[in-house]
């Protein structure tokens, strides 16, 4: 099955559909997602040859030196075909275009995605990633 990658940020509806398809329905404050997506530096959506939405990814950051890959999702029934790799490579190409010199690109990965990112040259080297979620 062939897929088409389009360089654009997913819509809030596309984002939610894909996030929920992989069990991330409770990971987002959905009221904030439209503004969050609008603040993206770049992104991609993936459709299969039947036009079905099957993947997405986006990048946030300052648009000059710091970039963070976010929300890379491939529908479970399309996983294992290399689409995650294609999404990350497409996002990386967009970042290289935006910042042709040196830049820092980071991400947080689920344990299931760790092998994918390492195969693409990502590493945790001597850095420790930390995060928190602020709630009302």
From TrEMBL:
Transmembrane segments: none annotated. Gene3D superfamilies: 3.40.630.30. Pfam families: Acetyltransf_7. InterPro entries: Acetyltransferase_Butenolide (IPR053144), Acyl_CoA_acyltransferase (IPR016181), GNAT_dom (IPR000182). Residues 5-136 form the N-acetyltransferase domain. Coiled coil: none annotated. PANTHER family: FAMILY N-ACETYLTRANSFERASE, PUTATIVE (AFU_ORTHOLOGUE AFUA_6G03350)-RELATED. This is N-acetyltransferase.
